[in-house]
Specification:
Length: 118
């Protein structure tokens, strides 16, 4: 098994609760579904937060993604995945994400506030 396959398998196994929340959210309207998606996004976000700061501050040329509108986040990630945006690291990361994972991350980051508020 490759390291990448192991990470994906581990992410999937460890994220069963998040996946269940996300899928259960399909039957739950409004705020409850958004909370389930955001919970799954929070679980997935650890890889993102290794470079993008949870505080909302940009560092070393890595932009903040905290507080981004969901549609903008989804557009950027799908463009990286389709290789329409040029950043080798982000293309690699985006290529491992499903549409549902991108949507959950978008919901999570949209709901975060930068340190000190906006």
């Amino acid at each position: 098994m490759t390291a990448r396959a192991g990470m994906t398998q581990g992410r999937t196994a460890a994220g069963i609760a998040g996946v269940l929340l996300a899928f259960c959210g399909l039957a739950i309207p409004g705020a409850a579904r958004a909370a389930a998606d955001a919970a799954y996004g929070a679980y997935l976000a650890s890889e993102c937060l290794a470079c993008h700061q949870a505080s909302g501050t940009a560092s070393g040329g890595v932009p903040s993604i905290v507080g981004w509108p969901e549609a903008d986040f989804v557009a950027a990630m799908t463009a990286y995945r389709a290789k329409r945006r040029d950043n080798p690291v982000m293309r690699t990361v985006a290529s491992t994400l499903s549409d549902e994972e991108i949507a959950a991350l978008a919901g999570y980051f949209a709901r975060l506030s930068p340190a000190g508020g906006r």
